[in-house]
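Researcher: Last one for today. Full complex below.
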Amino acid sequence: MHEMSICISIVESLEQMIKTNNYKGIKKVWLEIGVFSGVEVEALKFSFEAAICNTIINHAQLEIIEKPAKAWCFICGENVIIKQRYDSCPKCDSNQLTVTNGEELKIKQVMIKE
Amino acid sequence: MCTVCGCSEDSEKDHHHHGHHYGQNSAGLHIAGMSQEKIIQVEMDILAKNNSYAANNRAFFLKNGVLTLNLVSSPGSGKTSILEKSLIDLHDKLDLRVIEGDQQTTQDADRINKTGVKAIQVNTGKGCHLDAHMVKHTFDELDIKKNSLLFIENVGNLVCPSAFDLGEYAKVVILSVTEGEDKPLKYPDMFAASDLMILNKIDLLPYVDFNVDKCINYAKKINPKIQILQLSATSGEGMGLWYKWLEAHMNIVKMLQVNSQNNT
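Model: Here's the assembly. Have a good evening.
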């Protein structure tokens, strides 16, 4: 359940952002979560609700953008989409893939009140 | 034709009334003194705070030439037993320190302290992993020496600790032959994040149904660069290679330390 610590980090970052920029509040936050980030999206949504309670971003909406995993194939030189770390290349079936995307864990954008 | 501005209606899809930037709230208007909403691009790493603590820890380890290893595994794979055996065998030759992460109790730190090596217990309470900030807090009390070896025994959990950089030189994942050989496939993030896999309890291989070759293939499938050592902390078999691995990497850390001093 490290989703809870992740949500607490998000809340801390947003609180800092509000303070630094003198925003009135945050209405909505968009997160980019890669499928290899080790985060369970449902658990993240559940934890987010709990983490924002009694904070200045109470009632903020959450939108999650799930990012697919991509890899580069050493054999066919293509950038391919994979579902699991152990997938072989969907084009040439080689196992020589280097994962290039899918570990994203980012606050993409926020809707602020000013 | 649009009666407001005279533009062609067939461009309805991108009809530019929405893009006149009077104000970017839902009404498209800005009234002086009223608050409005605005979307701000952030592009911020969620773990930025942990990563900045980790970067500070890493700089501290580099400056002091400390080889720091983050030991991760599921509960019961023998992390503490490997540590105990290693500390007993190495504490005459090396300066050693241990950070023990567990949810509760000081039992592991007590076991380590009995070997004569200084260990600090960090209880994460309800947390399922150590983070870089917790690690930083142990530095003063641990009295970490230059060119020493620091083991961080993470909470027994093959999932969460993979996401939290502690500033370590490498993650070492420990898997025992009493577990399933397919664990690298089931918990791929941890095996992808680790530099070394230790296959422990090999003295039990005759009694269990565990296919070593299959396990190694699975691990390499997830992480082609992963190095693998097979050993038993109980019988001592294979421990020599592990000590050689430690020695080699302590030398690398020393070289990195010298390099960083020359560059500053």
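DSSP finds two helices and six strands in chain A. Chain A touches chain B at residues 1-2, 5-6, 9-10, 12-13, 17, 24, 27, 31, 36-39, 84-86, 95-96, 99, 105-114 (CB under 8 Å).
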